[in-house]
Amino acid sequence: MVMTVDTMRRPVGEQLRGWRERRRLSQLELAIEADVSTRHLSFVETGRSRPSRDMVLHLAERLEVPLRERNRLLLAAGYAPAFQENSLDSASLKPVAAAVRQILAGHEPYPAVVVNARSELLDANSAVGLFLGDVAPHVLVPPVNVLRVALHPDGMARNIVNLPVWRSHLLERLRRQIATTGDPTLHDLLDEVTGYPGGEHPDGLDASAAVALPLVYRHAGKELTFVSTLATFGAPLDITVAELAIEAFYPADSETAAVLRSTTAAS
């Protein structure tokens, strides 16, 4: 189910059925999970019964529908949105922004970035400059998209030693995100980045990676090896917060750690 303008105009029952099918649940399975009768769920999906506001939110919660799409379900059912969307620099999200900055600063001298649900760069620490030194200016025109930066032939890709494997990892992650959210913007991004050269590993894995898939990056004539983590905020009630992700890179060996420390000390 791709979220288009036509999709958002569809009755709420059809949209709920779409999300159920996306999650590969039968009516019976969802009814049991949501503690409602299959008859009532069937009536909701076919439009024979108008769900209450609480029922829309209840089903959306069980279906793990993103907050942005929950608002759209509510609007389709004739109710006001339940979740706000504030800018990260707004007064209401000041504590969140402060926490993000603390995480970024605390992670130095190792690189870390903050992105939204569309992989657009919202913030980064100074150590990320190591990845951006050879990136062409046109790839960094705002809004900067980190997948484009990573995979564009004029971006990081030219220095990623294990590009086919890392590219496979990023593309598979994007495909999973599309499967979860149905965001049409992500479909467009996938079409774009899959058109870049670089190849893909046949099974998307690196057999030499004993613990986690590494990023091997060439910098100043040296090959630096990183592993990364992806963190999100727990129990968010704001769309912006729900869509934030912090990707932090860690040195996978002592040589990489030493280069990062010396780079920071020299700056």
Automatic annotation (TrEMBL):
- Quote any Pfam family the record assigns: MLTR_LBD
Q: Which InterPro entries match?
A: Cro/C1-type_HTH, Lambda_DNA-bd_dom_sf, MLTR_LBD
Give this protein's Gene Ontology molecular function annotations: DNA binding
Task: Tell me where in this chain the HTH cro/C1-type domain is found.
Answer: 16-70
Q: Which residues form a coiled coil?
A: none
PROSITE patterns, from UniProt? HTH_CROC1
Q: Which SUPFAM superfamilies match?
A: lambda repressor-like DNA-binding domains (SSF47413)
Q: What is this protein called?
A: Transcriptional regulator
Gene source species: Virgisporangium aurantiacum
